[in-house]
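Archive transcription. Copying these from loose printouts into the bound notebook so they stop getting lost. Printout 1 of 2:
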Amino acid sequence: MKTARIREIVLGKALDPMGSETRHSLALVAFIAWVGLGADGLSSSAYGPEETFRALGGHTHLGLYMAIATAVTVFIIALAYNQVIELFPTGGGGYRVATKLVGPYMGLIAGCALILDYVLTIAISIAAGVEALASLLPLGFQPYKVWTEMFVMGVLIVLNLRGMKEAIKILLPIFLGFVATHFILIVYGIFAHASSLPALVPRTLAETTELAGHIGWASVAGMLLLAYSQGGGTYTGLEAVSNNVNILAEPRVHTGKMTMFYMALSLAFTAGGIILLYLLWHAKPVEGQTLNASTFKAIIASIGFGGEWANHAVLVVVLAFEAGLLFVAANTGFLGGPAVLSNMAADSWVPHKFRYLSTRLVTQNGILVLGTAALGILFWTRGSVALLVVLYSISVFLTFAISLFGLCLYWWRNRKTQKSWKRRFSLSLVGFVICTGILLVLLAEKFAEGGWVTVLIIAAIAGLCVHIRNHYSDTKDAIHSVDRVFANQPFGPHGGAVKPDPDDQTAVFIVGTSRGGGLHALLWVQRMFPGHFKNFIFVNARTVDSHAYGGEGAVEQMRAEANATLKFFVDFCQSHGMASTSYLGFGTDVVNEVTKQCEEISREYPNSIFFTSKLIFEHDNWFTRLLHNQAALAIQRRLHFDGLQMVILPMKV
């Protein structure tokens, strides 16, 4: 079986990026987006509340404060990020906010933290999911956990390479199963102890006062702050919608806000409700079990499903849905991470190839890189959820703090033109203080336990990004200098169109966005082959990347710019009395699209020779080959294989 056929079976048939119905069929409505993007936040209820409750030690009565604080914090962060959706409806989230409102280098730090965040989203979700399943299996399964994580990772990579919407629909039953089972258990668990609720608040206040009498109010406040910060993982994932507004159905801002509301409501209810269950059902750590497992086991036994075996079967179903949701949450990393890389690629912080789409219109390079990075982290940490939570929380709250600081700056700078600036500024400021406080406590308490690794990784990624951007900047300046050299090339006196004769010798130029590069090739050919070619044809294939395809009207704008560039070349030739025309194509793979156009031209103009330019660097190495598309060589290889002649002209930079 041919490789192409196998690929089609595994990943699905190629989609037409220019089809009017394609964008509509891929865009996510609020409910589907809640499943695809909200699973990350909702799944954190599997480990976030437990980290909070364990940090209280023996003073579990303080859990009431944590339950309230958790629910309130979720809504504060969600409402603050609704402003991000309003201000940046084309996506980008924390990276775009920091870049536009604070500065490019703070945007870089936020972007690097987000990349690490999404890598860790994948790693921690898969590790925690396998951990939940392992608690239902004999201890002999433990050595196979890492290999199980590898298998789950592979499945998720394939699903996402098939397309976002397909992946979400396959995972939808797991998400709904989690929501239904946990809603029932939380509601029943609270109402089963309804008689204890009236006395809960006064008892908590009395015990808090008694504790303060022994250790002091400052120590009580410190204990609460530490427990609150330890559960910071609960709030991760709330930024996912703002990062991916571009994949939502129109009207995007409204869809984004509805998705954020679903996320906030479901997470506040689940996380706050689980902490309340711990308190009401007197949850105690049990070796080999999570607090969720031991608490749910007690609740299910209280309900009674017809015997111990039936109760255990129900518990297995509940924990299986919990583990499954964690796998769904890992999928959020594959949605959000490539989107961040794509936005950073547009600003030249990372290789431009991270903007390219596959034939299934997904950012394939980003999916593969994030999956590989998550695999590496899983191997390094051996799937330790405790270590991953530390790395994860620090990277998330660094992004939160920078983004909310940017919002504070925006509303303060625009206080004279925005009527509701005080309310929005206050909301952003409260969110900034909360997130900065959690970040500082996590760094102070967990720096030696893995926090330093997060700082080191973010710094290393940022340093590499700066190096990449400097290279792209130098290359761009060199190309502009070429454009300036040819900018003053005079047009000729000839007026009117000159149509090519298919029987004449034809020079076909594969051009890009640089007019200087195209004129450089044209004049080079005329100088080397004076009077030989009678027809001059210009071919341009535009890559439909994540930015071109993500925004309404972006493809039309790209088409207009490409037509203007081609018209310039044709008009230049015809003004000098040379027969000329042009061809324009669009696709996700520039090599395939150009090859197809060249084959079409060779049939119409059999005496054709193809020309294109290639950037030549003084010090060519793997780094320059990584950053620059090697399309010219790939096209030449394809055309030579088809019996067509192509010459690559060097353009020194």
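Printout 2 of 2:
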Amino acid sequence: MPDLRDHLQSLFGLDDFRPAQREVIEDVLARRDVLCVMPTGAGKSLCYQLPATVQPGLSIVVSPLISLMQDQVQQLRDQNISAALLNSSLPASAQRHVIAQLEDGFQGLLYVAPERFYAPNFQPLLDRLRPNLFAIDEAHCISSWGHDFRPEYSRLGEVRQKLGSPPTIALTATATEDVRADIIRLLALGDPRVYITGFDRPNLRYECRTIAKVEAKDQELLKLLADLPGSGIIYCSTRKNVDKLAVLLKSAFPQRPVFPYHAGFDQDTRTDNQDAFMQTPSAVAVATNAFGMGINKSDVRFVIHYNIPGTLEAYYQEAGRAGRDGLPSRCIVLFSYQDRYTQEYFIEHIGQENPDHLDDQRITELQDHARAKLEMVIQYARTHRCRRQMILDYFEDESEVANCCCDVCRRESGRGIESEQTIILPEQLVTLIRKLLSGIARVSIRGQFGVATVADVLGGAENEKVERWRFDQLSVYGLLHAHPIKRIVAMLHRVMEAGLAIQRDPDGVKFRPVIDLTPYGISVMIGEQPPPPILADLLGLALRSDSLTPHELGSNPRGLGTNPQASPKVTILQPDAPLDADASGRFERLRQVRLELARQKQLPAYCICHDSNNR
């Protein structure tokens, strides 16, 4: 039987497990109930996706956001993993098709929102479905003590029972001890294994700026944004502030994309603004807490709270959307005492949305609990101790902070706030990125195709589609032959996360997305801009094939970057001899001609001709 690491590499194109992933997966495969608390970016989704893929049968995944479901399902399909979704975004005919698949014994991952279990066309199935795995993402939504309580989540224990009490994994990034106890109790988990991998995010720089006058916040925000590079999120407590700041920032920074988001917008506007933020480099989202759950944009360099949130759990989760790629990022609170009154207004209105479900005593308990939580946020904003340590202590994480860069620690050590360190990517990595982009560009010339097709072409696959579309005649065919197709797919998804490419549905077609370069991606491909620093870890997905010897590559080294049918033999180049003055001049003129051709064809220069060929 293949080792789990073999499955990880062959199915998901990843090199190795992150901390605790293997242990969680082994317990899930042993049919134990599991509660998994992992920080943002630690790889929670793999903890149920891999078990669902290596064992037969149906796995049901409960997810709170339609956009998050769509992203995960498409990524699984790109890896040739069976996955489906069922939610209100699907037309009725598509919903009927998915239900028919379930009735016929669908095997794979089915993503649903919690409301789906009570839909008239789905309820009759509950007693017949017998999933091998029940996965609940954002499980803190189950608890009324949590910061993002949703009534539909609290009934998932009943749903689990109707499904035959399958092995269950509940996952969240934020859960205090009382919330963890609620999750276990309400889901009726049987002697669950509880994994808490820690709450420390060393790459995040926590800061708080106390501002006496509310009107001074806007100027402080403008000063911050003038110095903060990259993408970021600005959280506000009210829709009114979102609308005001969106107008202010668009006026102050006309060249910077700004996307507002709150529950007052219709669903299409919210979806469009979220998608635009995800796909645009250096974009700023101005949003209420309605935005962000499940956001998977790895290059968020800053999160600013224009108003304080109601709990430290909410702050930790929202601030944690910065720095998912592990690079330094800033989390800044702009604190004024007036913010307290806004949160107290929300507390006074607890229970009004569901008056029939809560009696007066329960409402009072929830309000008292919320006030205590708010006091902790105020303490965090005013503290003179390490903010990072304060967060760990709040979540009962016993880790000791070292080398902290929060504003309190920096002030005590006499360190100033220097500009962010510039990250220069190695030439080997830049070339790899441009090869991936070139593959997308050249395949799109033949038509509209998805990630899997681009990976097949770059990997030099031999199949019916490649032959029918004559992809093997493209200059990029086999360019990355030294890498497994799965690994190329994983790298293409990282390129999309970085904003260099985008998946979109063709006109009139749903859920069969094609891949295209963004304007930013074209600029990087032809060398007008460097690749973004968030791709610094991309070589971790590669097999380091650039270091392989000609013998290891074999007699048909497609990984060397040319059409293998055009150059079937290995040519070992000797070190170049120095060029004399005349030869150097000719060489530079050739390079200039090559650059002009590359710009005309919107290709990297090396796809026209390598320096070694020129020489």
